């Protein structure tokens, strides 16, 4: 992505977050969620510009914030707050303000969710360019591992109410909650969300191949 479009993405993100914070009373939390999901996108812009040591540091920061992108998709359940869907076997309501809220929530989730997920391929490309990874099975293992860790982070974020910043403010307590508290439901949730993420990544790959096919 060239510098012009990077600045477009930054400005649009700032405007979206400001609007959601100041005017979207029902969904003002999306300002923080989108901002956190944008961080791995911003980090990915700088991969090619740094040396190997700084790249590893950026990579750790990217991994820390990457789960915020797929986490966005769990925000879809907030649509139940809208009055446009009154219940089973009833007609959708025509409340324009609620449909605006629906649109703002959906746009934020889909755009920043998919763009954030796509940064895993930027990271992979850079790892291969720097000879950190060299074989196809390593890329598959990398994607699977990142998605498992991401699903774990989504679980603790959604159910233990932890955010990425807690690794800085309360590192010991946060790590204990993440890695020492386990249950059958937690394992099942992680496996389910890992599958969802892999399917979403497959969609990104499919769309990219369709784009390349159109150029042939």
UniProtKB/TrEMBL annotation:
<feature type="transmembrane region" description="Helical">
    <location>
        <begin position="30"/>
        <end position="47"/>
    </location>
</feature>
<keyword id="KW-0472">Membrane</keyword>
<dbReference type="InterPro" id="IPR009793">
    <property type="entry name" value="DUF1361"/>
</dbReference>
<feature type="transmembrane region" description="Helical">
    <location>
        <begin position="99"/>
        <end position="120"/>
    </location>
</feature>
<feature type="transmembrane region" description="Helical">
    <location>
        <begin position="54"/>
        <end position="73"/>
    </location>
</feature>
<protein>
    <recommendedName>
        <fullName>DUF1361 domain-containing protein</fullName>
    </recommendedName>
</protein>
<feature type="transmembrane region" description="Helical">
    <location>
        <begin position="189"/>
        <end position="207"/>
    </location>
</feature>
<feature type="transmembrane region" description="Helical">
    <location>
        <begin position="7"/>
        <end position="24"/>
    </location>
</feature>
<feature type="transmembrane region" description="Helical">
    <location>
        <begin position="140"/>
        <end position="159"/>
    </location>
</feature>
<keyword id="KW-0812">Transmembrane</keyword>
<dbReference type="Pfam" id="PF07099">
    <property type="entry name" value="DUF1361"/>
</dbReference>
<keyword id="KW-1133">Transmembrane helix</keyword>
């Amino acid at each position: 992505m060239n510098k012009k479009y990077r600045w477009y993405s930054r400005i649009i993100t700032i405007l979206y977050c400001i609007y959601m914070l100041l005017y979207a009373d029902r969904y003002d939390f999306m300002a923080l969620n989108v901002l956190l999901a944008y961080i791995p996108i911003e980090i990915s812009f700088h991969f090619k510009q740094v040396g190997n040591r700084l790249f590893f540091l950026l990579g750790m920061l990217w991994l820390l914030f990457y789960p915020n992108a797929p986490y966005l998709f769990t925000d879809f359940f907030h649509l139940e707050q809208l009055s446009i869907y009154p219940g089973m076997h009833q007609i959708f309501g025509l409340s324009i303000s609620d449909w605006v809220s629906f649109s703002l929530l959906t746009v934020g989730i889909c755009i920043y969710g998919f763009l954030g997920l796509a940064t895993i391929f930027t990271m992979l490309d850079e790892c291969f360019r720097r000879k950190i990874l060299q074989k196809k099975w390593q890329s598959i293992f990398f994607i699977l591992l990142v998605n498992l860790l991401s699903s774990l982070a989504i679980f603790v974020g959604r159910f233990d109410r932890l955010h990425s910043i807690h690794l800085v403010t309360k590192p010991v307590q946060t790590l204990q909650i993440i890695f020492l508290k386990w249950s059958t439901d937690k394992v099942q949730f992680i496996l389910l969300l890992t599958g969802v993420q892999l399917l979403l990544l497959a969609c990104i790959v499919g769309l990219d191949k369709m784009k390349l096919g159109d150029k042939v």
